[in-house]
Amino acid sequence: MKEELAYVLITPYSLIKSRTGGIIGRLLSLGNLELVGARMYAPSNEFVDRYCATIKALDMKAQLKEAFIKYINDYFRRDNRFGTSNRTMLLLFQGPDAVRALKDDVVGSPVHLKGDTVRGTYGDYIGGEDSHVEYFEPAVLTSTDIETNKKQLALLAEYAQSDGGVLEHVIKFKEGEKPETTLAIIKPENFLKHSSRPGNIIDIFSRSGLYIVGAKILRMDVARAEKFYWPVREVLREKLKPKLVRRLKESMSTAFSFPLEDAILDRIADELKDKNAEYEFNKIVEYMTGINPSSIKDQRDRDKPGTAKCLALLYQGVRAIEKIRNILGATDPEKAAGATVRSIYGYDLMRNAAHASDSLEFAERERKIVGLWDQEAPCEEKEFIERYLQGRL
Question: Which of the four, 220, 235, 266, 272, has the lowest number of CB atoms within 10 Å?
Answer without folding.
Answer: 235
